[in-house]
Amino acid sequence: MAKVLIIDDERSIRNTLKDILEVESYNVDVAENGFDALCALEKNEYQVIFSDIKMPQMDGIELLQKIKEKGIESSIIMISGHGNIETAVDCIKKGAYDFIEKPIDLNRLLVVIRNALNQNKQTSEIKYLKRKVDKKYEMIGNSPSVERLRKMITTVAPTDARVLITGENGTGKEVVARQIYLQSNRVEMPFIEVNCAAIPSELIESELFGHEKGAFTSAIKQRIGKFEQADGGTIFLDEIGDMALSAQAKVLRCLQENVISPVGSDKLIKINVRVIAATNKNLKEEIKKGNFREDLFHRLNVIPLHVDKLEDRKSDIPLLIEHFSALICSEQGISTKTFDEEAVEILKNRAWPGNIRELRNIVERLIILCGNNITAEEVNMYVNF
User: Fold this and answer.
1) Given this model, what pLDDT does residue 114 score?
2) What whole-number percentage of the chain has pLDDT above 90?
3) 282 and 163 in a common domain
4) Which residues contact 370 (CB under 8 A, 6 or more apart)?
5) What is the pLDDT of residue 83?
6) Residue numbers of the domain that contains 374
7) What is the pTM of this model?
8) 325 and 252, same structural domain?
9) Same domain, 303 and 316
10) Does one domain contain both 218 and 342?
11) Would the pLDDT of 70 be above 70?
């Protein structure tokens, strides 16, 4: 049952609104002024707040500002008998959800509160999903290499500097890229990921920069490219060492001039994108072989970050096992399972050619096949050494 607070200095209006909303099965509290409302907000959590604007001592606009300053996320609907467009716009700019004029129309009242609650539900769902995504890309470990990496990310993230992340497959380069994004000033804007190794060379330019209808045989409609989708945000070019040379030339121009040109078009589109790239290849060796442009390498390699292989940070393995266990059990909808000390020690001393990705897969295998407390015997049984 949604909880609602009504704030109005006129008793008749407070009681009328309270009676109407209680008939509709809302749980309603009332306050006759802004000070009483703030006291109520300290004790209770409300999904929706109705506040009159003209009140003695503290008017509704001042109350609205104080509520927002406190970080209260209730939907606030302002009420006024002297409403005009300027007042309504001012309220919305200051954070109100909506504005209702007196005398209050019953249908309008019920529609507004339903819409406010639907928005609350959607906002809560988005925050829940964002927390799940953030948890998935949490950087786990307290080894010296992870601490150095964490410190570098904190320093680099708030800037717009380009970052080149290197490391073996499965070491967590995407996690580093996500952490840079999550700690950046662009976190409210898109994060667009492109796996350069997974896209055929003949399609990579279209994927990155888009194309016009009819630009090539299968271009049956216009397509917006990844760089344009990321405008204002961040693009993550994963496995950039596998990008075709023709696409590298276009990426270089994009980085130099901050413009793109879709395939089959002469128009230039201005963009504002932060570029993070990653590779498991030695790009200096690829430059010598003629597979990678040296000028593009220097454009990308403003801030180089290297992610160590798991073999070099084995002290993090117990924390990673604990993290993956909780994450996988949550995904599977089962109670969290534990690993006994001997089981963890066996896994810690094992070789990990597949790095963190291999560790996660093995933890998942053990969680599915074993009991609530995973033992050394079970590790020896289900893990191929």
Assistant:
1) 92
2) 69
3) yes
4) 337, 378, 382
5) 62
6) 311-382
7) 0.70
8) no
9) no
10) no
11) yes
Q: Does one domain contain both 338 and 220?
A: no
Statement to judge: residues 111 and 50 lie in one domain: yes
Strands 338-339 and 303-306: unpaired
Q: 345-354: long-range contacts at Cβ-Cβ below 8 A with a sequence spacing of 24 or more?
A: 345/376, 346/376, 346/379, 346/380, 346/383, 347/317, 347/321, 347/379, 347/383, 348/314, 348/317, 348/318, 349/314, 350/383, 350/385, 351/311, 352/309, 352/310, 352/311, 354/169, 354/170
Task: Tell me the pLDDT of the chain averaged across its residues.
Answer: 91
Q: How many residues does the chain have?
A: 385
Residue 129 pLDDT = 65
pLDDT band at 230 (very low <50, low <70, confident <90, very high): very high
**Residue carrying the six token digits 């049956």:** 220
Of 319, 321, 331, the C-alpha closest to 140 is 319
290 shares a domain with 302: yes
pLDDT at 92: 86
Return the axis-axis angle of helices 317-332 and 341-348, rounded to nearest 10°: 110
pLDDT at 385 over 60: no
Q: What would the mean pLDDT of 211-226 be, rounded to a whole number? A: 79
| pLDDT at res. 93 | 87
Give pLDDT, residue 122: 81
* Residue 131 in tokens: 């927390």
**In total, how many domains does the chain have?**
3
Q: Where is the domain boundary, 105, 131, 157?
A: 131
Q: Is the pLDDT of residue 246 over 90?
A: no
What pLDDT is stored for residue 127 in this prediction? 66
Burial 115-126 (b: 16+ CB within 10 A, else e): ebbeebeeeeee
Q: Is the predicted pLDDT of residue 339 greater than 60, yes or no?
A: yes
Q: Which amino acid is at 201?
A: S
